[in-house]
Amino acid sequence: MARFLVTGGAGYVGSHVVLALVERGDEVVVLDDLRQGHRAAVPAGTELVVADLANRARLAEVFAGWKFDGVLHFAALSLVGESMRDPLRYLSENLNNTINVADAAVKAGCLRFVLSSTAALFGFPERVPIDETATLLPASAYGESKLMAERALDWAGRVHGLRSAALRYFNAAGADPGGRLGEDHDPETHLIPLAINAALGLGPELTVFGTDYPTPDGTCIRDYVHVMDLADAHLRVMDKLCAGGPSVRYNVGNGSGYSVRQVIDTVERVTGLKVPHRIGPRRPGDPAVLVASNARLRAETGWAPRYPELDDIVRTAHAWRAAHPQGYGDRGAAAQAA
Ligand code: UDP
Questions:
Q1: How many domains is the chain partitioned into structurally?
Q2: pLDDT above 50 (res 199)
Q3: Which one of 116, 183, 207, 260 would you pick to mutate in the ligand 1 pocket, going by the greatest count of ligand atoms within 8 A of its CB?
Q4: Pairwise CA distance, residues 66 & 285, whole Å
Q5: What's the rounded Cα separation, in Å, for the pair 206 and 21?
Q6: Is any atom of ligand 1 closer than 6 Å to the C-beta of 286?
Q7: 58 partner at 20 to 30 Å CA-CA among 79, 178, 276, 338?
Q8: For 1-38, what is each residue's pLDDT tens digit?
């Protein structure tokens, strides 16, 4: 049994990782400011510290209160579009908060760190599938902020011996197959939940962002990876760090791509409902195809996706949303917590 600090552990990916850790018997302390996270996403019996990562004194208290075997850092601003309207806020908050957590961890002698990173590091890639040797050239301030966070961890490694794993996610999707957790963003910007909401009548009709891409059906292709498979990748890399392994950087995706039209077709087939949609213009900044090479992650950690089929991803996402039409039902709670 080990004890981990999980920042952003009440959010979408973070909460699925917390559940996976708790289910295998680890102890978790969640640190979340509940701006995007949900109290109800934290398992009963798991400690939740409601705090802002800008508060270095509070962070020091948390590290003084518990001895952690490692840190998993999810808490971040994560909307690409928003980052292009307010780039300096993204760069400042995501970099500074990562530095604050890493600094508190180093000072407490906790030298294992897993960072939630992103495929946005690669911008418009020269080739697909995208492996870890691809050029790091973010096309958004969000991607840049995560690249800077990775680099800060590199320096903490060189100087302080912090060993870190950065997982560059492709498109996280799906939900806990046990139905306990799901995806509840405000605002929601991601394709699969938006398509499901449209099908269920819980949201507006979907707009397809462009049908003139150089792909077989003209719509963008993305690599949707099940959130449980992402969670599994986090546990594997943390276990390797705990076993003394070196710092690593991995791309985490299914390795196969699906177009926007294929997603719509899958949602319609799985739910038996129509997805009301219309064709709109391209969204600025969208590359035509983003697909991961997961070869390095597979070879070095033994990871393989357990839910590689888009049907399973959509089925679990739909099941949670159909059972929770209002999500976690705490809209407005974040404002109170702030
Ligand atoms: N997309 C779309 N309509 C939407 C939201 C997304 O057509 O309302 C497309 C988007 O252009 C991209 C894909 O769906 O090709 C996945 O977008 P998402 O925002 O979910 O993730 P991203 O790839 O931007 O991280």
A1: 1
A2: yes
A3: 260
A4: 43
A5: 35
A6: yes
A7: 79
A8: 899 999 999 999 999 999 999 999 999 999 999 999 99
